[in-house]
Sequence to fold (941 residues):
Amino acid sequence: MSGHVAPKKKVSDMKRLWGMAIDLDKCTGCGACQVACSQENNMPIFDDDSDLPKRVVFLDLMKVTNDNDRDAKFGDVKVAYLPKMCMQCAGNDPDDPQPPCVSVCPVVATDVGDDGVVSQIWSRCIGCRYCQASCPYEARVFNWWKPRYEGSFKEGLNPDVSIASRGTVVKCTFCSHIWKRERDRLIAKGVTDINAVQYTPACVAACPTGAMVFGDLKDPQSPVYEEKLKRDPRAVRLVHSIDALRDTNPAEYERRTKIKNYPNPKVWYLTSDQWLREKLSGFKKS
Amino acid sequence: MEKLERREVILMAGGAVAGAAVGTVFSGAPFLGLQWLVEWTQDQHVPAPGEESYLQGKCLLCPSACPISVRMIGNRAVKVETANNGCYRPQLAIQMLYHPERLKSPLKRAGKKGSGKFAPVSWEEAIKDIAAKIDELRSGGKAAEIAAINGAGAFASAEVLKRLVKSAGSPNVYSEPCYSSLSAAASGLTQGQSASIYYDFENADFILSFGARLVEGWGGDPGRMNRAFVDWKRRGARYVQIDTVCTRSASAADRWVPLNAGTETVLALGIANQLIAMGRRSAGANFAQWSQIVINDYTPERVAEITGVGVDAIKEIAAEFARARNPIAVAGRGASAVSSSSVEFAAIQALNSMVGSLGRRGGVMLADYSGLGDVALNAQAAKGLDDFIKNGSAGLLFINDANPVHRSVYGKTLADKMKKDGMVVALMPLLNDSAAYADYVLPTISSIEGEPIEARFKSMHPVDALLSIAGAVKGLENALPWKSFKDVYPLIGRLNLRGAGNFAFPVGLLKDYLAGFAKKIGDKKYPLALVPVEAPMVGDGDGMALPYVLKGLDGLTLTGSKLWVMMNPDTAKQEGVSEGSRIDIESSRGEIGSVKVHITKTVAPGAVAIPLGFGHEFYTKYAGDKGVNAKEIMSDDIDPISGAADWWFTRVKIS
Fold:
């Protein structure tokens, strides 16, 4: 027999693959997603959270403009806000998902669940920061300082999310603890079908304009049905210029998607602004 | 050389080791090491467990009163859940609820005014003292010296305080200038009814906004604007934003019309010129004189020269506006903080009048909210808050959920007056810049307390606190017959819409305004224009006390204690500044600095864009030592109708 061993086929009852789509044309940059995320996930409260190097957030509300383009003029420039969290990369093998961060973690503190969510277990992390270095989206944060919550701010902490130690890497988990909460509620009602569990992460629930939607990428009824998003000319993925090759150069596209650590994120951004699509995807139409 | 004995060498080596050991112990290193070991090995704070439940309530931050659901763990509130219908503000409620600097009891001044030194007192003592002061002023014939300043966001307590002060015999009740108070003053001028201008955003199909940043917290009800914005996209209504800075509203709009700072009124006159050329007329009084000015002096060419908007663009906008079925022209520059002159409101409302949008569905109406009824008084109040601060005085001043020392351009004047004048009573959940000058600070609840969450410490709903004060004053028992805020809420906040009435063009005021404007833009000593922008959630300053708001500030808004301002590359080149330069900004009123410069093409040439809401002197440790307060040098010309300073557009120079 040859030495090649076929990867084990995934065996799981879980049929869902959670993903998110964010319509930047509808985003007003109000900040509700960021606060909701911080509140839900027990973000530390330091003496001065305006201090950028010290800041710990899972969801970063980034201001994006095209004002640095050489031919941009006052009057033609634009400003958009970009809620950026963990992109929950899927990798290129559905049976053995290896996003960039998971493949480098020496202690299995981060892994991909059956539902596609890239987990992160704070207490298992040894703080080597390989994952942080390998993440294409700077979605991971290192706790350089012990997370603090001054005085009565502790009263508002969510018991579903454990508080990290100093020296660990933390990140957005698509609020998977809310999924667990919803699952437990269904089980208490006697529903044991795992695929019946639906949930909404805190950021999506808080979005006042409905710019953020969440659901099952494989479900044709879902607002984030992946096959539909792939065909949507408004949709791009962050720093993912490979997507542009899908129609123009299928052979090259196939080749690149086979490369190890192909990210394949599960968060899509939608916008009708071409400059913004180019800026986000990193692919410029010449 | 003396020979060392083996024994001596051993002793010396032993001594060195012992010395090093003693030294290490006394250096503190082992203790620090132990502390690190403890922190590294032991787990962090574990949130207290408890039974999960959800409390249903209403967000009481604005009259929309969106339903909210609060997730409870035991008796702790951990999250506000909304149903995609509100705005960002309910999400901040938990931070406010558990803020460690929340006032734990009423406070009485214990040091000099403005020092911020207070000692706790009981509610009984505070109420007795305040009621005695009201009695004293009333019996001494000085009832008119009682005054009140309500925050723009306070609506139930503002109504009760208005009723309290007016029943006590004083007309001096003011609101911090906001969209609704400024537009009410303007419609008093043009339509003879002091009710705020209500745009039917839900049914309009062409929205022409003159610097009103509609999706950035504008109008006091961001939830309504968010819903309207999504609806415009759905049904294809066209949104055109006129603005000096490329804000998110400008980018989210279907079209952004950039213009020179402070020239919105002139652009409105230019569009009116084109509407007249298309044969549009208004039935309003004095239209003939108004149109003479517009026809003779505001040709598209001249308007293009002043505003920087091209002749073609002016003609296009006017044509689109005239062609639309339900067009509205929106006045009220700004986002959370609004500043427009009454003439600007009138010039923009004139456009609505010329296309027949006044008083119809999909157009512009007048609105007020049901209140507790007015009290007729003979005495005359000042025109508005800034007019009152500049020219008035108070023997007893209530500051209700407001921060005029920080937000008014006359903040310093008010602070000086509060130091000298009579008693100051502040009602608020956190001590702010204005409360630092108070004699009494009464702790009020945050937005989700009272209902559905129990009030923390000894804080009270501001309505309840005011009712208790009224109950302790002789002769006011019947003026405020309610027992608690729960009796008051059903009476207030109901939206009351009416037609726009007859429109009258304020020709004389327009001439005065244009003369002043010409002088202002001709100022050679101050060649640049200072215009405000707002950072997400900071608004005009209230958000700065909340750490999760600070987490949203980017590195081009604030780094360390330094605030960033934005300038166009052309202006920067002309002024000789580069990215990251530190500058001071000077107007005829004074100087602020230093701030850092970010060079970006999102700002009009000749303008400096500065974020509002920074530079608090006294507002929790989180807001402390962060940036500068632009209001200190912003224009202090008081509008003759609204009595509010028109601070939007200030001539400055940088150094």
Notes: The domain at 18-281 of chain A is CATH 3.30.70.20 (Alpha-Beta Plaits).
